[in-house]
Design goal:
The protein is an alpha/beta fold and 544 residues long. The protein has 21 helices and 16 strands. Helix 8 packs parallel to helix 11 (184-194), helix 12 (224-232) packs parallel to helix 13 and helix 14 runs antiparallel to helix 15 (323-332).
């Protein structure tokens, strides 16, 4: 492509956007906005919650039975069609998932701009609202970043919002096809990997090289009943599941059997419990620990200045002040520390005690040291230079050479107490990864420590972001919580000195710690986590 053609490409995109804006947005939306303002009053409209704004169809007697009336038996030879938005998901709006893409795949500025658009979005009809959210979220976004978010971030929030009744109908059928106006790239990976959907038909987005332009492809927003006709032709699907609005009635009327999800009857019975997840959610990434609805996102942005100040204050307290004073000020600033158990008796063989911890954040050894009120040395395979400088305790890097690392840990144990996290990486969910056996071959005095955390706003771990900011994000939470449970010292007969192999000791400790926390043991490793979430093997390079 010649240089003049390339130079004209971006202006042409802007011209297409301007043409669409003036011909569709202004023409189609002013009347809708005026009627909303007339009927509800300007300020009263914005004070209304989604649950209080009733659609015209909410008063109409449903034409189709509730999804709970569907017979689930003998469906393996049949085909079911449905939508993820409003049907498979309990969420009333898809805005939170656009916000997740904007924040985790884009930037905090893109997320803020999307939040600012909420008053305008509330005045638009569904199609225009979807187009505006797509443009703000995807304009200039790299396809690689969208792939990372769809693989590592969105599945967690989708699973937590699955409608159990709609999922049971989907699962009962042998063939599953989803039609949705939501961009296909946002939902296809989750639907195929977690819900075992055979085919996903969604809105296609326009791209330019490695980037999204924020515009739709030439086919525009997907119209579900038309897409269903094109996909199946003269054949009619066996089961259709939708909502009570008129567009979904057109969609499911093309099926042999049709059922609707009644949003007004949603209760705890529609929530899918973790044990019913079609695929275990062990790993996920991203910083946000909450579903970013407009109200929740606004609260986050209002909290940010306070949170940054609190994080810096808590870091200063933990690094510079004595244990008793740092605990007092830390608790006073909102950090919740729960300690169970006590420090073991001093080792009789002149060596230090080896503390074996579950790994929830980079701060595990710090909180253990603070709880015991004594200095400890922590060993780790990968630590950014910034995190190493900020650490209030001594940290030593391991080389991944088993013989050399064993000699290093033996030397450190002769100097004092040592902390090791044999999982090799953090895990946010109630699972323990496979324990390395190296630590078990080096010490006879082993004390297991069950560590757990709880956050409400930001996760203090990341697989694809800057790990040096992990402690800062954790401490930015309004009330971050740390639980430290010091178990009894491992009996001598369960150590290598008692005749056990290193693998037997490691597996024994994994089971003990899992039982103490109520977690589940897995055979997954650090490599598995990083290959899934970041596409690498988890080697952290210095970033400061």
């Amino acid at each position: 492509m010649s240089a003049p053609v390339k130079a004209m490409e971006f202006p042409m995109v802007l011209l297409r956007l301007a043409d669409w804006f003036f011909s569709h947005l202004l023409a189609n939306s002013f009347y809708t906005a005026a009627m909303k303002l007339k009927n509800n009053g300007f300020f009263f409209f914005f004070l209304k919650t989604p649950s209080t704004i009733k659609s015209p169809s909410s008063h109409v007697f449903p034409l189709y039975p509730n999804v709970t009336k569907c017979n689930l038996h003998g469906r393996k030879s049949q085909t079911v069609v449905c939508d993820i938005h409003g049907c498979l998901l309990r969420s009333h709006s898809f805005f939170p998932y656009f916000m997740l893409v904007a924040f985790e795949g884009g930037s905090i500025f893109r997320a803020f701009f999307l939040l600012l658009s909420c008053p305008i979005l509330s005045l638009l009809d569904y199609d225009l609202k979807m187009r505006v959210m797509i443009f703000i979220t995807f304009c200039g976004l790299r396809k690689k970043d969208m792939d990372n978010v769809s693989r590592a971030v969105l599945p967690k929030f989708y699973l937590e919002n699955i409608n159990l009744h709609a999922y049971e109908v989907l699962e009962s059928a042998g063939s599953k096809v989803v039609f949705t106006t939501v961009p296909r790239v946002m939902v296809e990976g989750f639907l195929k990997e977690y819900l075992r959907v055979d085919s996903v038909m969604g809105t296609e987005l326009h791209t330019n090289g490695k980037y999204f332009t924020g515009l739709l492809s030439s086919s525009g927003l997907l119209v579900k009943h038309r897409a269903l006709k094109e996909y199946f032709g003269e054949k009619r699907p066996d089961i259709g599941v939708g909502t009570s609005n008129i567009h979904d009635h057109l969609f499911i009327s093309l099926c042999k059997e049709a059922y609707v999800v009644n949003r007004t009857e949603e209760n705890k019975s529609t929530i899918m419990p973790r044990e019913r997840y079609p695929k275990a959610l062990v790993f996920h990434d991203g910083r946000l620990a909450f579903l970013p609805t407009p109200a929740a996102t606004l609260s986050m942005f209002m909290w940010l200045p306070i949170g940054i100040f609190l994080a810096l204050f808590r870091l200063f307290v933990g690094i510079c002040l004595p244990y008793n004073l740092s605990i007092l000020l830390g608790v006073g600033s909102g950090v919740n520390i729960r300690v169970k158990g006590s420090a073991p008796m001093k080792s009789q063989n002149g060596k230090g005690v080896l503390y074996v911890c579950t790994h929830r954040t980079l701060l595990d050894p710090v909180f253990l040291s603070t709880s015991l009120k004594k200095p400890l040395t922590a060993v780790t395979y990968s630590l950014s230079k910034m995190s190493e400088i900020m650490a209030p305790i001594r940290t030593v890097r391991l080389s991944r050479d088993r013989k050399r690392d064993g000699e290093t840990m033996q030397r450190l144990l002769r100097e004092g107490d040592l902390v090791v996290c044999p999982e090799g990486t953090t895990c946010r969910e109630p699972y323990l990864l496979r324990f390395s056996s190296l630590f078990a071959e080096l010490a006879d005095e082993i004390v297991p420590v069950a560590m757990n955390t709880n956050v409400t706003m930001f996760y203090g771990t990341t697989a694809s972001g800057l790990k040096c900011l992990d402690p800062v994000f954790f401490l930015m939470n309004p009330r971050p919580s740390y639980s430290v449970h010091i178990l009894e010292k491992v009996p001598r007969e369960m150590t290598c000195a008692g005749g056990k192999t290193g693998h037997e000791v490691a597996n024994y400790l994994q089971r003990q710690l899992a039982a103490a926390l109520g977690f589940e043991c897995t055979s997954l490793t650090r490599r598995d986590k990083y290959l899934m979430l970041a596409g690498n093997e988890g080697v952290v390079h210095d970033k400061s």
